[in-house]
Amino acid sequence: DGGITQSPKYLFRKEGQNVTLSCEQNLNHDAMYWYRQDPGQGLRLIYYSQIVNDFQKGDIAEGYSVSREKKESFPLTVTSAQKNPTAFYLCASNDRGPGELFFGEGSRLTVL
Amino acid sequence: GDSVTQMEGPVTLSEEAFLTINCTYTATGYPSLFWYVQYPGEGLQLLLKATKADDKGSNKGFEATYRKETTSFHLEKGSVQVSDSAVYFCALSPFNTGKLIFGQGTTLQVKP
User: Fold this and answer.
1) Do A98 and B32 touch (CB under 8 A)?
2) Shortest Cα distance from A83 to chain B (angstroms)?
3) Taking a C-beta distance cutoff of 8 angstroms, is the pair A17, A110 a contact?
4) Is B82 helix (H, G, I), strand (E, B) or coil?
5) A88: burial class by Cβ within 10 Å (0-12, 13-18, 19+)?
6) Which helix (H) or strand (E) holds A63?
């Protein structure tokens, strides 16, 4: 079945460590997105990519980095520069242009 | 900039009650409008959408009408069930982009 796979589902890290969250899609979508979800704040866009080897900052990119070397993959690295990394991270994809976003099931990161 | 405002939750209803979740937006041009639903521990799923003024989106008994004159896209359901308990997000996609801008989410709890 086509869809978006995020891993790991749960991740615990010590403060100061970089962590990488995986996002893979087999929907043949051009565009991919990373959102962060915090209680009471909805979803905020971290980074997005509309085509391979190109990506743009969203509203809260500081402390995060991404790469888009393959169409199917859009990993997110949460660096030690991110001041409050504990959150639920959601990856999504769609064809370029307005339309429905398809979401993965999310990765919950807890920094101890 | 473009933004979405939803009524604050949580909303608590008895089974078979009528549901309204208010959503208003600010956008330039002609955005597409969406309602997404998130069940506990999961990613978001598209519930319904509308792409132009006066369009009505509907799915699973939920409805919302794109009202340009009041910049609103309120979600309604005539008779809620316990299984409708979830977080509901209103979102807009600015004209000619694939990004989504989300409201803060409204938690719905339906009691038997």
Assistant:
1) yes
2) 21
3) no
4) helix
5) middle
6) none
- In a 3-state reduction of DSSP, which class is residue B83? helix
A105 φ/ψ angles, rounded to the nearest 5 degrees: -90, -5
Cα–Cα distance list, B24 to A7, A26, B111 (Å): 34, 34, 27
pLDDT at residue A65 is higher than 90: yes
With beta carbons under 8 A apart, name residues in chain A contacting B104. Answer: 40-42
Q: Say if A54 is an interface residue toward chain B (CB within 8 Å).
A: no
Residue A86: Cβ within 10 Å count: 14
Residue A12, pLDDT above cutoff 70 = yes
Neighbour count for residue A111 (Cβ, 10 Å): 18
Read off φ and ψ for residue B61, nearest 5 degrees.
90, -10
Among A96, A95, A92, CA closest to A105: A92
Which positions ≥6 away from B96 have C-beta within 8 Å? A97, A98, B29
The total of other beta-carbon atoms located within 10 Å of residue A81's CB is 11
- Structure confidence by residue, pLDDT tens digits, B66-104: 999 999 999 999 999 999 999 999 999 987 677 889 999
Residues of B in contact with A43 (CB under 8 A): 44, 89, 100, 102, 105
